[in-house]
Write a structure and sequence with these properties.
about 450 residues, alpha/beta, 12 strands, about 45% helix, globular, binds 2-acetamido-2-deoxy-beta-D-glucopyranose, membrane, glycoprotein, glucuronosyltransferase activity, transferase
């Protein structure tokens, strides 16, 4: 601004008198403004750097001496601070909150609504997604049902993805869809602790009160993700072939296709594989979506050409970041019945699997046929849920004594109403965390 200001008649006159020539007349103001601006630049540089130093030292004085040189090294400090902040300062011992994605495709509308009902708790967050293969009417029906429900609309914690994604089975669009939901959940209700990705053919085996009760006791940085680096047959079937998912660029749904060229196994990072079902922490989701580290992005682009990327993307990212690998618990929290050897699809679970499901102590199971009678048995015997009703929980007692609109949290663990499901889940989780060599068995 100073530079463009015309010289005042006084100075111009004086310069004119002193120098006489045109160049001389401009020399003094020009020199002055150059001096002034370089002074300003120097000053601003000095102040901003000293402020940056002050800022980076002030939050964690103890870490000041180890001021990290690389951005990645700041992760751990950030994580510790976020860990407390994400749950609004409610650390271990407080009641956590869970963010769910429940997704489905054409014809899944009713099953999705049922799974949502069975999973519902007013302090959690839910994103429901019917992919583009589902007709617009089905998506509109789902949105209308959510809007019309007095409980969902009272707590406003169920979001329907209206601009749906085209999701190709086994394609990278599945991971893109999961990341999309995670991003919505970060924006909509930042104060959740864990993210769980389910489909319309999943169903819970414990109540949300059971789940929240058991999770209250856990460190908030544990990521439940089944994984291994022993990729075995997948090296030739998955890592080397290159696929293209038309869902990334086409409006019409069609299957993934293979190109003839093969690629070699990555050397820039190590591949991990495992179950597509997981429970991930807020910090890790933030790292994947908002992170400044480039690994989540490069690995995502790598997996764009990888068959069944949901079975590898998060596993490979989490195990290649030193700050996160020790947070992994090698379990997917699901009861899934595979053939031996496993085929592409698991068995549909029926009444015959009921005891197996209960004895697995897992909080979720898949995959269920629509309206299979075993779901009614789960409702009756495990969840205490009436058809189309909610699963009973401490929140119902709380609501009778207070009037809440909008966001709702259960503050105290004593206000939850855990049942036998909590005992089963506790057994599973304790077993996992006290396993021999737990500390040395991450990402092997
Ligand atoms: C997330 O959920 C969908 C279910 O619709 C599933 O197919 C997918 O593999 C899951 N996992 C990931 C990592 O996206
Ligand atoms: C993770 O655990 C291993 C084994 O206990 C340990 O050597 C390593 O330092 C830990 N890494 C981090 C980042 O804490
Ligand atoms: C809460 O109040 C409703 C009626 O307003 C009643 O039907 C229900 O039994 C009450 N629940 C509890 C747990 O007291």
């Amino acid at each position: 601004m100073l530079e463009t200001k015309p010289p005042s008649p006084g100075t111009a006159g004086a310069a004119g008198v002193a120098g006489g020539g045109y160049h001389r007349r401009w020399a003094a103001p020009l020199l002055a403004s150059v001096l002034l601006s370089s002074l300003l630049i120097a000053a601003s540089l000095f102040f901003s750097s000293s402020r940056a130093l002050l800022l980076s030292f002030s939050p964690l004085p103890s870490a000041a001496s180890a001021e990290p040189l690389f951005v990645e090294a700041k992760l751990r400090q950030q994580q510790q601070m976020r860990g407390a902040a994400a749950s609004g300062g409610r650390g271990r011992g407080a009641v956590p909150r869970i963010a769910y994605l429940v997704s489905g495709s054409a014809g899944d509308g009713a099953a999705l609504r049922r799974t949502l009902r069975a999973l519902y708790h007013p302090s959690n967050m839910y994103v429901v997604h019917l992919d583009l293969e589902a007709p617009a009417t089905e998506r509109a029906e789902l949105a209308a049902a959510v809007r019309a429900d007095p409980v969902y609309s009272r707590f406003r914690n169920v979001k329907v993805v209206t601009r749906a994604n085209l999701v190709t089975y086994r394609g990278p669009t599945m991971v893109a869809n999961t990341l999309h939901a995670a991003a919505i959940l970060l924006r909509e209700g930042g104060e959740w602790d864990w993210f769980i990705n389910l489909s319309a053919s999943d169903y819970p085996l414990v109540t949300q009160d059971d789940l929240l009760y058991v999770l209250s006791d856990l460190p908030r940085q544990l990521n439940f993700i089944e994984h291994t680096s022993d990729i075995g047959w997948k090296e030739y079937q998955r890592a080397k072939p290159v696929i293209i998912d038309p869902g990334l660029y086409s409006l019409q749904k069609s299957d993934v296709f293979w190109i003839t060229e093969k690629r070699s196994v990555p050397t820039a990072f190590k591949l991990f594989t495992g179950s597509a079902w997981m429970m991930l922490t807020h910090q890790f989701i933030e790292y994947c979506i908002w992170g400044w580290d480039n690994l989540p992005r490069t690995v995502l682009m790598y997996y764009a050409n990888f068959l069944s990327s949901p079975e590898g993307y998060f596993h490979t990212v989490i195990c290649n970041v030193p700050e996160f690998r020790n947070t992994t618990v090698n379990h997917d929290l699901h009861f899934i019945s595979w053939d031996n050897p496993p085929k592409q699809h698991p068995h549909y679970l029926t009444l015959n699997d009921f005891d197996g499901m209960v004895n697995s102590n897992a909080p979720f199971a898949r995959k269920f046929g629509r309206e299979d009678p075993v779901l009614d048995k789960i409702d009756q015997e495990l969840l205490g849920r009436q058809p189309d009703g909610f699963v009973a929980g401490g929140w119902m007692d709380l609501l009778n004594t207070t009037t809440v609109k909008g966001s709702f949290t259960v503050e105290r663990v004593q206000d939850l109403r855990p049942g036998p499901g909590a005992d089963r889940l506790k057994k599973l989780v304790t077993g996992l965390l006290t396993q021999e060599g737990f500390d040395d068995k991450h990402c092997l």
